[in-house]
Amino acid sequence: MTALAICGGRLVDPAAGVDGLKDILLKDGRVAEVASPGKLKGAEAAKTLDATGFVVAPGLIDMHVHLREPGQAYKETIATGTAAAAAGGFTAVAAMPNTSPVNDSPEITRWMQAPERGAQVRVFPVAAATRGSKGEMVNDYAALKSAGAVAVTDDGRPILKDGIMRETLAAAARVGLSVIQHAEDTRLTQGASMNLGPVSFKLGLRGMPVEAESSIVERDIRLVAESRDARPHLHVAHTSTAATLTAVRQARRNGLRVTCEVAPHHFLLTEEHVGLYNTHAKMNPPLRSAADRDAMIEGILDGVVDAIATDHAPHAMHEKEIEFELAPNGIIGLETALGLCLRWLHGEWKMPLGRVLNLLSAQPAALLGLKGRGTLAVGSFGDVVVFDPKAEWIYRATESKSKAKNTPFDGWTMRGKVRWTVSEGRIAYTGS
Amino acid sequence: MNLAAARRTLHTPPPPASQFPYHPGSLLSVLDLSVAGVSHLLWRATELENEDPLLRDQVLAKRKIALLFYESSTRTRTSFEFASKALGADTTLVSYLSSSIEKGESLKDTGLTLRALGAEAIILRHNSSGAAWLLEEATRLPVVNAGDGMHEHPTQALLDLRTILTHLRPGIGGIGPEALAGVTVCIVGDILHSRVARSNMLLLPRLGARVLLCGPKELLPEQAARSGPGIEIERDFEAALNRSRVVMMLRIQAERLAGLQLDLDEYKASYQLTGQRLAAHAPKAVVLHPGPIIRGMEITAGVADGVQSAILEQVHNGVAIRMAVMERALLATGQGGRA
Questions:
Q1: Does ipTM top 0.85?
Q2: Which of A53, A150, A332, B194 sees the fewest Cβ atoms within 10 Å?
């Protein structure tokens, strides 16, 4: 494999405690050298990217995406989803198991990682926690882990039964996997299509109460506390309510391994963005009240939120062009996450760049146990994003690399343009 | 933490501005109409009602109007049809049972098909909230919302307004924001599932009326009071009656209860409009009901047929109002446009 030097940029690698002008050399897919500008020793034969004026950072890691393969290639494929990931600066994505069939086997887990899928960046499957994600029978986690699964979840569905959730936490802890919970008490959300509140009343839509999320989180935390000797790791997916963050915060104070992620739409948008039945503002969990949205920002700034994850959920155009109540949940997010985080978290709300990037790379890597990723220390994987931190640009969904165009951020101004995304030493995306 | 909060109040992404309605003739929500627009419609309703039928027949002569009905309906469908035909328009009814909707054709495709067939306006009744917005965006035709799920039923609110004005403000000319000043209207029963309640609670306060919502928690969530100005919740039916000049009773929408368990005997004991209650607490009130009425449930037969009942006047007013609405739909010049 050829070598690649990235020179002249500002290296921001929070996990390694680096923020300064550095050149880096990638060789055989790994970081071979990090040096002061012009001081790389082994760069002679290397192709060089001029990163002058740009930020060079560990490739972003999205711990919550839906790539729709196997089974729903009309929405997205692993190839198109990872092309969108690369365009968004992501070098690793954790693929949720709600495929068709559900990824509850080592065979599907391996299939998703096979070279034939044409992935542009690394795909780390998250396997189903229970058989068929039906919440009845716990899968063989050791086998799934050795096939490459990095966590287990029944995402899209919650594990409602206490006994099964207890068993899941214990079994996952034994093999060192995290349990990612989609926290939703579906008994409280029957037929609902947005947040429960004045807006849902006004629009005549059935609403999901915030308790549907927080009650499951509280239940899960109780179960983690009961089996604390086994040190289970509970990760709360797509957190959307203030009550959930309060519960997570408390659990951490009590020394439990409970973590959480927030999606950009949940720290930027509110139920008001549903407007007049915009299906691109329909997702699960739904957009919440302004108070909940503010709590997400608060949680990100004060550190209780461990990761930003997009919940990239592609759907075909015709599936979203129907009655709001009937439209499927979810929006795409891989190409807008960095631009939104830099514009709002860093630009508007003054979160230091290193901390923003930490939420997008080092911390998700740690949560999923991805060794050698989320940092550019020598010896790590050569997963790099190079972006122009000052560039403002307008996102056009029609230009998305994803098969799907379902996003509420079409036409939004983004900050920070990806120039190159490098996956294990190979240029996976070149921006204009 | 507080610093962060202060920074945020400075700037968060604002909700996008609405593009609706795309067509000035559309009537999707009562909020699409200014008070002047409402006044104009009421005036046109009376003008058209009094017009020589042979002249009236020329207003929309041979214009094509499609009635697209995903739910069953007696009053709304018939009065839209009579109203359209009285203006000379050609109408066709497309209902979910006898069309390609049954074969899985989407609302968008059904709308585009009707447009390609020459429909110049579509009257839509649909069981999903927001369906009229989807149809308007897809077809860009004038769309008249004849009831969307649990959301709105603007022509019903307009005909209710006409009925109320006939009783409380007879002979009134143009109406303004004070037309119903001092009038309290109580809406009783299954507010949660009612599009009639939503349209009325958004329309009547803009003309100066006060709206009292009355019903049990299961059918009337607290958030309802935050739908707009001039809306209040009074759970005690008799207290609400004491204050009201107009009482609008609603049917319990069994088809939308979605598993909600309701003790009907208890409901009747608390919220049924009986002759006794009416005589004791609102002997002068006008009694309205959008229909269909379930006699013996929300209202007794005696009250429904009694002297205070204006239920059949409402039905009758539907034709005049819908003539004015269809005239606006097809001859829209911006008059009676957005608020």
A1: yes
A2: A53
